[in-house]
Specification:
Shape: globular
Strand order of the largest sheet: 3-2-1-4-5-7-6
Largest sheet: 7 strands, mixed
Distance between the termini: 19 Å
Strand content: 15-25%
Order of helices and strands: EHHEHEHEHHEEHHHE
CATH class: Alpha Beta
Number of helices: 9
Radius of gyration: 17 Å
């Protein structure tokens, strides 16, 4: 399960690995927390219109990667808060889909980091341990038949403490193709600039591994 704050975050952080997993026959689910309705520098763009555009872009990107399902929680962009309701929403997703591994943004990255990224990472971590696990947490979910689930691992992209690097050399083109599905975002960033930057970062991540391109994470195995 990939839990991202905005449409396009997952393509920047983990798309090469997602492409590898789906090629290997693994099922991957996306959970997109906000509707991305602030992500434009176009003064004529309306938030509702942008949210619709970005949702469709995310569906296209997920299809390129072979993602099994995309869940849109549709919180407002720049509006995430660490609340019981948001945490419960993430717990519901975890218990419904029952993933072994969850990948999300690192909440402990210092200084310049989108607030929605920090909150998504922290709420996801708390949802994994202990709330999704404990049967006495959210008893109304139990009444709906949505039973507790123990996630085995949680991985964080955007981390300053990387302890896991995955080879995405064979899937760099797929990662870029998925990223370029987010046309509304690439228009302001410049596709050529984005491609060069992504390749540079993934080459840096692969240094001393023998890979050409890599994605890096901080991996935590959940102690049960």
């Amino acid at each position: 399960m990939i839990i991202s704050a905005h449409p396009d975050d997952a393509e920047f952080g983990v798309a090469g690995s997602v492409a590898q997993w789906t090629a290997d026959g693994k099922q991957v689910v996306y959970v997109i927390c906000t509707n991305g309705d602030k992500g434009s520098s176009d003064p004529d763009m309306k938030p509702q219109q942008l949210a619709q555009i970005r949702e469709e872009e995310q569906r296209q990107a997920a299809a390129r990667l072979g993602v099994h399902e995309v869940e849109f929680l549709r919180y407002p962009d720049q509006g995430l808060e660490d609340t019981p309701d948001f945490r419960k929403h993430i717990v519901r997703m975890i218990r419904l889909y029952r993933p072994d591994i969850i990948v999300t943004s690192d909440p402990y990255r210092k200084y310049i980091w989108h607030r929605d990224h920090r909150i998504t990472g922290q709420v996801t971590l708390d949802a994994v341990f202990p709330y999704a696990r404990d049967h006495m947490a959210y008893p109304d979910l139990m009444e709906e038949g949505i039973l507790p689930h123990k996630v085995k691992e949680i991985w964080f992209w955007g981390s300053e403490d990387i302890n896991l690097r995955l080879d995405i050399t064979g899937f760099m083109d797929t990662k870029l193709a998925a990223l370029f599905c987010h046309t509304s975002q690439m228009a302001s960033m410049g596709a050529e600039n984005v491609e060069a930057w992504i390749k540079h970062k993934c080459r840096e991540m692969a240094e001393a591994t023998g890979f050409t391109y890599a994605e890096g994470f901080h991996q935590v195995k959940i102690p049960y």
